[in-house]
Each structure stands twice: as structure tokens, then as C-alpha cells.
From TrEMBL:
Pfam families, per database record: PP-binding
InterPro entries: ACP-like_sf, PP-bd_ACP
Identification of the protein by name: Acyl carrier protein
Domain of life: Bacteria
Species: Crossiella cryophila
Limits of the Carrier domain: 4-90
SUPFAM superfamilies for this protein: ACP-like
Amino acid sequence: MTHEAVLSDIGVMLHKVLGEYGLDEVEVTMDSTFHDDLELESIDLVALAGQLEERYGSRVNFAEFIAELELDQIIALTVGQLVDYVVGALDGGN
């Protein structure tokens, strides 16, 4: 799966989460950060994890991916980093 396709999928997932806050018009790019740009809370990341597993299956384990990061890395996490992880996981690299 391409980075563009995964970014599109994740964008749809994030707009579902953001829509609950009336923020479904926010632009989601590879450089968007989950904390500063999208202002997601931890519960939102749990919802995103569920959507990722529903879409991609058990090969994409968001909780495992996050668990390997330090707190400052989680705070600075970008959509692009998640896209890279998903593409790698689907290609069997993770």
C-alpha cells in the first residue's frame, strides 16, 4: 500500500474522530502533529487505534507502536510517522 493511500485512510479516520469536536474541516497532512495541530487526547488515540485495527487488521498494532516511543516522541508524533509505520507494517517490515 502506498504512503498516499495510507495518508488518505488515516485522514478519513482522523476526520471521524475530529468530527466529534466539530473540527472535521481540519487539514490532515504528513506534517500534522497529533498533539499540537490536531489536539487529540489520549482517548482519541484509543479510538484511532481501533479504527486502524479494523481497517488493516492485527498487522498494524498502534498500541505497540506507541509503547516503543518516549513521552516527548509521542507528544511530537506526526501523521507522517504513523503513515510510515503503517506502510512498513503492511509490507511486513514491522
